[in-house]
Amino acid sequence: MTDESSSGAPLVELTDVAVHFGGVRAVDGVTLTMREGLIYGLLGANGSGKSTLLGAVTRLNRLTRGSLCFDGADFTKLPAHRVAHLGVARTFQTVRLIDDRSVRDNVSLGVDTLDRSRRKEFAARVDEVMERVGIAESARLRPTELSYGMQRRVEIARAIVGRPRLLLLDEPTAGMNTDERDEIGELLRSLKSEGFTQLLVEHDVQMMVDVCDHLFAMNLGELIADGAPESVIADRAVRESYLGRQANDA
Ligand SMILES: Nc1ncnc2c1ncn2[C@@H]1O[C@H](COP(=O)(O)OP(=O)(O)OP(=O)(O)O)[C@@H](O)[C@H]1O
Ligand SMILES: [Mg+2]
């Protein structure tokens, strides 16, 4: 884990961000900062607003209020495709791959989201990235011929092929067994060592503590904790709103 005092400059700053769907306050007044080079984790019960918050940052979800800053510049009004050009990429909570194209073609789609001037450079990196995430041998297969865990790796490859500065991962290990989870955890740590700043949404608290440098916790659209992993999971409001519920469910 990285001591935050030694980490980089603020990369992303959210100020009073809200996303309401009619009367549903999915995200309601979130202010937070993410610094370059760290892995951040976002915890919260089902429906607490985690995926919506990722959608706010990528501009897929319209902001009801608040502002977004990337590398010191306001991007609150940028459309989603321009946010991708800034260097923000995400994976989705459910696998979203094109089934009638090869694994390699699916990874290449990540290049298409880039600014035109950068596409050629990154198209040359597709094979290297597939190697990097452990899917090179499946390059010619269809996504449906892969295990679920491998399909999730294809999504990570598609997200990182353009070397985003911020990688948003929405439950990348959902449905995986413990070994597969550990492998993804290791992959994310190694991406960190290559300089990828990450925001990881996960329900597995142990994985969050093992992988993340800093945690955020949400409840009912609001940020209820923001700090070092051990202090966030020990936080009373977090335990009551989330961890207690998990223990009861078990
Ligand atoms: N497009 C939408 N239209 C209306 N309501 C929505 C929409 N997207 C999300 N919501 C609602 O916003 C709230 C937050 O949902 P969100 O998916 O962000 O939660 P989450 O923390 O990601 O949950 P989970 O852990 O189950 O993935 C929920 O009440 C959800 O029903
Ligand atoms: Mg979600």
Spans of 5+ residues with little confidence (pLDDT < 50)? none
Write down the domain tally: 2
Mean of all residue-level pLDDT scores: 92
Read across the widest sheet, the strand sequence of neighbours is 6-7-8-3-9-10
CATH topology of the largest domain: Rossmann fold
Report the count of strand segments: 10
- CATH architecture label of the largest domain: 3-Layer(aba) Sandwich
Helix vs. strand class = alpha/beta
Number of helices: 10
* Computed CA radius of gyration, to the nearest angstrom: 18 Å
- Report strand %: 25-35%
Order of helices and strands: EEEHEEHEHHHHEHEHEEHH
Shape: globular
Identify every distinct bound molecule in the structure, by name, code or SMILES: adenosine-5'-triphosphate, magnesium ion
What is the percent of helical residues?
25-40%
CATH class of the largest domain: Alpha Beta
Distance between the termini: 29 Å
CATH homolog superfamily of the largest domain: P-loop containing nucleotide triphosphate hydrolases
Largest sheet descriptor: 6 strands, mixed
